[in-house]
C-alpha cells in the first residue's frame, strides 16, 4: 500500500456519482440486510439503501471513522478497533 493509503488506512470513499449509478442498478427484495465491510462514514451504505426497508450493518476498522458513522448506521456498527488480534 502506498504511504498516502497507509495514512488514511486505505480509506477511499465511494464517489457520489458511482453511488448513484450503483443505486440505479441495485434491486432489493425487502426486507433485506445489507453489510458494508469497510463502511467509512456510512454515507455510501445509506445512499445505496435509501428508500429500502433494510437492516444496515457497518464495519469500520478506523476508530475515528467508526465513531463518526452516520446515525442510522451507528446503532448496528461493529467496532473492531478495540479488539486485539
Task: Give a summary of the structure in a few sentences.
With 85 residues, the protein is an alpha/beta fold. It is built from 5 helices and 3 strands, in the order H-H-E-H-E-H-H-E.
Give structural notes.
The protein has 85 residues and is of the alpha/beta class. The protein has one domain. It is 35% helix and 18% strand. It has helices at 3-7, 16-25, 43-48, 63-67, 71-74, and strands at residues 32-36, 54-60, 77-79. The chain has a 3-stranded parallel β-sheet with strand order 1-2-3. Helix 3 (43-48) links the parallel strand 1 and strand 2.
Descriptive terms for the model:
85 residues, alpha/beta, three-stranded parallel sheet, 5 helices
**Count of discrete alpha- or pi-helical segments spanning 4 or more residues:** 5
Q: In sequence order, what are the helices and strands, one letter per element?
A: HHEHEHHE
Find the structural class using helix and strand composition.
alpha/beta
- How far apart are the termini? 21 Å
The overall pLDDT, averaged over residues, is 77
Strand segment tally: 3
Overall geometry: globular
Q: In which order are the strands of the major sheet placed?
A: 1-2-3
Biggest sheet descriptor: 3 strands, parallel
Strand-residue proportion: 15-25%
Q: How large is the radius of gyration?
A: 14 Å
Could you name the ranges where pLDDT drops below 50 across 5 or more consecutive residues?
none
Determine the fraction of residues in helical runs and give it as a percent range: 25-40%
Our count of domains comes out at 1
Amino acid at each position: 500500500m502506498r504511504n498516502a493509503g497507509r495514512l488514511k488506512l486505505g480509506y477511499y470513499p465511494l464517489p457520489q456519482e458511482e453511488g448513484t449509478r450503483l443505486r440505479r442498478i441495485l434491486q432489493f427484495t425487502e426486507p433485506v440486510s445489507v453489510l458494508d465491510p469497510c463502511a467509512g462514514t456510512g454515507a455510501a451504505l445509506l445512499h445505496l439503501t435509501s428508500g429500502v426497508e433494510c437492516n444496515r450493518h457497518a464495519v469500520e476498522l478506523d476508530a475515528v471513522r467508526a465513531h463518526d458513522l452516520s446515525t442510522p448506521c451507528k446503532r448496528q456498527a461493529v467496532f473492531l478497533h478495540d479488539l486485539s488480534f
